Amino acid sequence: MYLTWLDSNSWLLELSNQRVLIDPWLVDALSFGNLDWLFKGYRPQERAIPENIDLILLSQGLEDHAHPPTLKQLNHNIPVVASPNAAKVVQALGYTSVTTLAHGESFTFNNQIEIRAFPGSPIGPTVVENSYLVKELATSFTLYYEPHGYHSPQLKQFAPVDVVITPTVDLALPLLGPIIKGYKSALEVAQWLEPQVMLPTAAGGDVIFEGLLTKVLKTEGSVADLRLLFKKNNLLTQVLEPNPGDRLELQLAKRTSVTPK
Prior knowledge:
Elements: E1 2-5, E2 11-15, E3 18-22, E4 40-42, E5 55-58, H1 68-73, E6 80-82, H2 84-93, E7 98-100, E8 106-109, E9 113-123, E10 127-136, E11 142-145, E12 163-166, E13 170-173, E14 177-180, H3 183-193, E15 197-200, E16 208-210, H4 212-216, E17 218-220, H5 223-232, E18 238-239, E19 247-249
Parallel strand pairs: 3-5, 5-6, 6-7, 11-12, 12-15, 15-18
Antiparallel strand pairs: 1-2, 1-19, 2-3, 4-16, 8-9, 9-10, 10-11, 13-14, 13-17
């Protein structure tokens, strides 16, 4: 299994000779509803779009997960697996093969990868987006991805999971509380799933953020803090901290998974 962090929530996952692009924001700026004064993200240099993508996996319909300028540049014939909200984005752009996964549903891609959707991040009062458990069928190696730190207890029945990608720091707004849950949430999901490896997402990297919202956002925790917390709680999970663009080869030990009830 190979993983490349492409900044923010964007990842390239390689397993079973399949290249899966997760929540890509790779070109142009990021803003929500064109409100640049409120929040804007950009890179000093645009990141190259990876070649030979076999599948696009989208967890949310928001711009930092289903980024329209990036999706416009990708080949619209690439198959997409998406949350209902993200599916609407790519369908409107003209993608030809879109599989929508509701919570609890699964999809098998090319008889090699199984993708199962779980409840993820709440977006507003009524919408809950997706998290995903990705399983390599040949080896049973599993990867769990949730970019805002909201983890469903339903995951417990699929433990152990080999790799977890989730935030490791908190981002909070005064009076409103966390918009991204990292530190304690990462500990909780590690206790549930006992992953061999955890990788942080959603923070750091080469991205520059500006706007009114960035002036009031509060960051709490760090990867170093999380490592100490894991040690204190007798967790053997290795917390890696890749640089953007690094291609990591994960050496995973074969384990016996629990059959879901």
